[in-house]
Amino acid sequence: MKKSPELPGSTSRLASVLRSPAMKDAIATLAGNNDLTHDRMFEPVNAVVAERLSKALPKQPETMFSDRPITEAIILEKTRPVLLVRDGKYDIARLPAVEQEISPFRSKLVPRINAVGRIELSDHDSMSWCGTGWLVADDLIITNRHVAELFAQADGRKFRYRLNQRGRYVGSRIDFREEHKVPTSNEFGIGEILWIAESSDAAPDMAVLKVRRAEGLPEPLEIATKDAVAGQWIGVVGYPAYDDRNDSSLMERIFENIFEVKRFAPGRVVNPGNGRWYLTHEATTLGGNSGSAVLDLASGKVLGLHFGGSFKETNYAVKASVIQKIIARRSWVPVTRHELAIETEAFKDFKRTAASMKDRAGYTSGFLGADKSVPLPTPGTKHSVLPVDFEKNALPYTHFSIVMSKTRRLAIVAAENIDGALKIKLKRKDKWGYDPRLTEKQQLGHHDFYGPQPFDKGHLVRRENPGWGATEAEAQLGEDDSFIYTNAAPQMPGLNQKTWLSLENYVLDSTRTHGFKVCVFTGPVFRDDDPTYEDVQVPLEFWKVVVALDADTKELLTSAYLLSQESIMPTEGFRFGPFKTYQVPITHIEKEAGIKFAKTVREADVFHGGTAETLATSLRFLEIENPEDIVLSRK
User: Fold this and answer.
1) SS3 labels along 44-75
2) Lowest-confidence segment of 80-89, 242-251, 440-449 by average pLDDT
3) Concatenated DSSP letters of 95-125
4) How far is CA 331 from CA 300, 318, 401, 421, 428, in A?
5) What is the pLDDT of residues 25-73, one digit of tens each?
6) Domain positions in the chain
């Protein structure tokens, strides 16, 4: 018969149980009453256990029953229960010695247990859920590498969702309920796959995901500042599933044939793992427990991240100190020059005067033709428009105009005219500065925001777009105007905008459009739960609407796009990884961005009628990976 490992192993788990006098007495009582096991083939075990426990515990108890590995499982069936969780509270343990240890913490642990959820999948080929995860640091979900790899994979230095056999991306979300006989759920979309540890024995089995913050998100767990010690009482919170790697009859007795719901498994730390990245424990777990939180009963803080084990041997968890280091390092966040202490030339604002900004024509609604008017969209009631002394509160620049938000200090919409036939290639001259027609407090500048914060000044009207005209001076003025802070929006460094920024050029050059002129509208999606940095809410999504003339009909042709680093499908969670571009119905842009386009522009959408209705209802949009993916036909 195969012998169990010495340390950490089955005998070590048994020894940790027997070191508790109350537990030892309880087991002896069970054995003396022939209640330790009711299987006939193991009836002699009752007598053996009763006899041995009546004697003093040997110095090396791990040798006890080393030739009877099934005996240990039977003992653990009685002493290491897996209790159902109901409304955040774990059930009463049947064994008084266990209940005595865990009862003082039942109510105190409710908010901690509520922060543990089941990771669920959509469009996976074979799985509807895949493991456990838990919330930490407001919006981070911690789980195992081997759990995350079921639906995600590395893509260079970033991570993305996997494709299923039908070519669709797998989606994920987390449900913090999934309790036995509880029909309600508490689901949140998983917004990004931030980091997955490399597949190596030297690397912790851990992954970090980002959940979309919304009302009802549980209070995050706190990670213990000190690692566990041997014998420390713990509770493993997760979702054990039927696992055919274990004895089926034993599982059915322990779990009473109830699987895949939230459970609380009390136990002790066996080996704290000094000098290693993992500890071992002897709480009862199964396959779905991967990613479970290992909680210190006394404080409710996280002592470990459970990642595996054998039902008859031992269980493993990533130590608290290792988890803490990974989160503190935040290797998924692009490093800034400030962190690296790289000296750079002091930034200076380019000074503009009100006189230098005179006579700007701004956006022209009749740019595509006198009878093809494309008016500025109207901001809805969700916006607080900054009033300015210009028509429709639109600040005019060379070939574009901008409507500002009074409360967000960013553009609500940037409207531009592009004449591809008159484009002139110019040398880039970064002349970022304030618009002198506004106060500096009405704009986000370098020294008060972009300099201290790790965001780039992202052009809404891209630099090259207004760089056209009858003369080079006119084109240069257009490019210079694009470097005014009203045209900037905070964007993370390294944002891949290649497809996003080439949309206008593709529409201009497409055989489906007439001429070399387009009208383009761009803006951020303002949401109440946008993350805040230094009192500035940073938008996570941006939209763009391009209006041209149809090559066949010479009528207006509208296409709308959304750039997202978070979810555009709130019912299912983010599905494609950060910073993807989607083509969407213009009605979706109106709803999300809180603006209204002219009826003629809406009716010219390439997604019209039943197609637009289907897309808007299902929230499943067309992902744009190459310009050829763009739809520019109403047929």
Assistant:
1) HHHHHHHHHHCCCCCCCHHHCCCCCHHHHHHH
2) 242-251
3) SHHHHHHHGGGTTTTHHHHTTEEEEEEES-S
4) 27, 18, 39, 45, 32
5) 666 666 555 555 544 444 444 555 555 554 443 333 332 223 323 223 2
6) 1-79, 82-333, 355-422+495-629
Of 154, 18, 144, 122, the residue nearest 76 (C-alpha) = 18
Joined together, the tokens standing for residue 11 give 């005998």
Cα–Cα dist 135/143, whole Å: 9
Residue 580 confidence (pLDDT) above 90: no
- Dist CA 632 CA 509 (whole Å): 12
**Residue 172, SS3?**
strand
Rounded to whole angstroms, the Cα distance separating 459 from 522 reads: 10
Using CA atoms, how far apart are residues 259 and 324, in angstroms rounded to an integer? 31
Could you tell me which residues are beta bridge partners of residue 196?
A: 207
Q: Do domains 82-333 and 355-422+495-629 have the same CATH topology?
A: no
Fold of 355-422+495-629: Extracellular Endonuclease; Chain A (3.40.570)
Query: What percentage of the chain carries pLDDT values higher than 70?
Result: 77
Average pLDDT score over residue span 292-316: 90
Predicted pLDDT of residue 61: 32
Residue spans of beta strands (DSSP E) within 302-366: 302-309, 315-319
At the top level of CATH, the class of 82-333 is mainly beta
